[in-house]
């Protein structure tokens, strides 16, 4: 394991009025690791991703990327420094083709908006990144299909592909398996396995079987705070976790 | 081993919603050529009418970049048109004709300058608030010209002499001559259209379309969307200023009504009438709007009782169009080229 984490968050807190959605959460993401965050609905998992990706500002805390303080960096700059995210609710460009969805995402790394004489679709850099991302996500056979007309599972794959197209080092994945069938879930988990060596992955997921299968580290959140963190065996054995979360699951 | 072959038309017909088809320039080019020869057969009245339409087409194209491409519906776009027109009148020398390129650039810069200010503030809001803030800034500009002596107050001001363009002692363009006005308007319309077609095809244009469809995702990918929107806003303002310059040069007079919210509404109606999301839709909308207005306000055709109420008849027609053609006039052609689903 690397000594210094790729992304290091300390004491992240976010208040919405009187509600503390995320309460002093510290989390380290290492390259080559899948770090899963689990917890009941409303535990603050999505807010945590929003904080790490810069979508919403912190109330307090600090975020470092490769040792550099990125706490005050706005989301677009943070994304360009290597923090990619996917959304729980699919957020693609439904009217555009699958390829253009990824190409446009990749173009963020090669913006040069003043090159008006050059067609966007002949931008080699972004096309190359888009094809690579679609290949990795297994979508190379649907390049010219309108993204909005694909199945839910394929849209979820595209969601990840668009994240990969920006060439991130950190992947913040918000429930990538939500609403997926068994076969699609398998494909997505296989993709996570392939991405693991080159990336630091934070995985928010409700599917416990999947989480315990792929995660190297699991952090459990309840009411915005971390109640346990460790490898899957430790977390499974933690009485607090069983009481707060897994127990509920077992009775459900 | 080779990659799976795509249907021959896959490249051209690929559903990139923002990409013009390969022959997309053909129809506009034919129209431009036809317009170039039209003065041979047009009488003076109709020639002026076509100039009026071309000016509105540029105005509508400028708003199309904002509303149709970027998804920013402004209800204050006439401010930039009017400021371009006023800049032309104010910067023109009083006892000699002004220079066409100089006044054109000044008109566009003045409009772009105000657009930079309005955009920088209004783009911090969204949706209905954006509409209200742009309207408020346009009304502010309207009342500045209406209630102060800068531009002659509510009566407006005249261009004592229309601009000319001299090069090396030769008088190349003299806007006192109707035909010169015609060809300058046509030339600028072609330039504006071609420029916007390039913009839409470029990375910048694709990014603007992405912002319209899903701004959140664009920010997550790494685009500073505020800057893109501001650039689009200033560009649209500058092009509206170009239309304003032509309006001042054509009519030889400017007045505060050029900045009024009626005008902002009219140009918005043009692009909706033509069909949001395409350049030709904006041009078609401008043509239809001016012709409909001309028709409904014609006392010779409809009598003074009806012609005097052209806003009512035009408004009812607009409602009918929007109800029956939700995709605008440009949708008519598409309706016939694609087979309907069997019911």
Radius of gyration of chain B: 21 Å
The chain pair with the largest interface is:
A-B, 46 and 35 residues
Task: Write down the Rg of chain A.
Answer: 18 Å
Number of beta-strand segments of chain A: 10
Question: What share of the residues of chain B lie within helices?
Answer: 55-70%
Query: Can you count the helices of chain A?
Result: 9
List the total number of helices of chain B.
14
Write the layout of secondary structure elements.
The complex is a heterodimer of chains A (252) and B (343).
Chain A: E1 7-16, E2 19-29, E3 33-39, H1 45-53, E4 60-65, E5 68-69, H2 75-80, E6 83-85, H3 98-107, H4 124-136, H5 152-165, E7 170-174, H6 182-195, E8 200-204, H7 208-214, E9 217-222, E10 225-230, H8 232-237, H9 239-251
Parallel strand pairs in A: 3-8, 3-9, 6-7, 7-8
Antiparallel strand pairs in A: 1-2, 1-4, 4-5, 9-10
Helix pairs in contact in A: 3-4, 3-5, 4-5
Chain B: H1 10-13, H2 26-37, H3 44-69, H4 78-91, H5 100-122, H6 127-147, E1 157-158, E2 164-167, E3 170-174, H7 178-201, H8 203-221, H9 225-251, E4 253-254, H10 261-274, H11 279-296, H12 299-307, H13 310-324, H14 330-337
Antiparallel strand pairs in B: 1-4, 2-3
Helix pairs in contact in B: 3-7, 3-9, 3-10, 3-11, 4-5, 4-6, 4-9, 5-6, 5-9, 7-8, 7-9, 8-9, 10-11
